[in-house]
Amino acid sequence: MAQxxxxxxxxxxxxLARLRIxxxxxxxxxxARGVAGTxxxxxxxxxxxxxxxxMGAARILRVAADRFGVDSRPAAIVLTHxxxxxxxxxxxxxxVWDVPxxxxxxxxxxxxxxxxxxxxxxxxxxxxxxxxxxNSPERGIDLGERVQPLPxxxxxxxxxxxxxxxxxxxxxxxxxxxxxxxxxxxxxDAVSTTRQELAYAVRMQRQQLAGPPxxxxxxxxxxxxxxxxxxxxKPLLLAAGHGEPMRGASLPxxxxxxxxDFNRRARxxxxxxxxxxxxxxxxxxxxxxxxxxxxxxRWGTLSGVAAAGFAGTWLYRRFGKRAGT
Length: 325
Fold this sequence. Notes:
Layout: E1 10-13, E2 16-21, E3 24-29, H1 38-41, E4 47-49, H2 57-68, E5 76-78, H3 84-87, H4 90-96, E6 101-103, H5 128-131, E7 147-149, E8 163-166, E9 175-179, E10 184-188, H6 199-204, H7 220-232, E11 237-240, E12 246-247, H8 251-260, H9 262-265, E13 279-280, E14 285-287, H10 295-319
Parallel strand pairs: 4-5, 5-6, 6-7, 10-11
Antiparallel strand pairs: 1-2, 2-3, 3-4, 8-9, 9-10, 11-12, 13-14
Helix pairs in contact: 7-8
């Protein structure tokens, strides 16, 4: 097993590693050098899942070099979705690695310059992730021909034995990745293993099975059905975009309980997208509900400012000075 680098890589399994960049995770799928001789035979037998925040590009490159060799590059970069905290380092990475990027077809408008995401709902749970984001966190990016649709077969490029599963709601083309052999689920933001809306939970990485990050979730009915889809596969190890991996014999029952009680445990009681989702077609967002307005909304916004200031200061002190950007 590869030795952990200075960037605190966690070995989730023998062929999956997690790198936390601020409040979001990226994953390296593939056995590191020296494990079963895999990389000696094929230096591109690994894939990167998501690309994290922009400040993490140097760290991702360093970890990849440590794990797979200085001259190695991934067979593919696979995106669970295209929100700013999952694609932030892509431009820098693609400047070093000339490799394909894969995403669901419904996510492509936001990755090819055709559309921006619906605006985040800053009234939900304080809107913490959006307040830690750039000025326009909903802005799409333009990868041009470098991004391709995931294969209709369900296969995942660069990740043998994995399958992608459409789990929309948090975004139109959100996908999760599942490996049936060991019942390992890479859930992206379809579920979280810490409460992203709570600054203390983000800071301490307090483990708690939760729904998708609320302020960017645009269709709560679909989000609930996606949790049911994940629960139906009965994973024994769950690695999400936010929070530490969860595992164990009780995990399938815990996911089933979250799916069953989704509206009570995960769906906010108010907010812009609670009753009426944003609607996107193959090219753009075609329908947006009106912004939510209420006393609770105003209080949520104000509390979000305070929480974001606390978390943002901590994240800068903890990660910013070593970001290399």
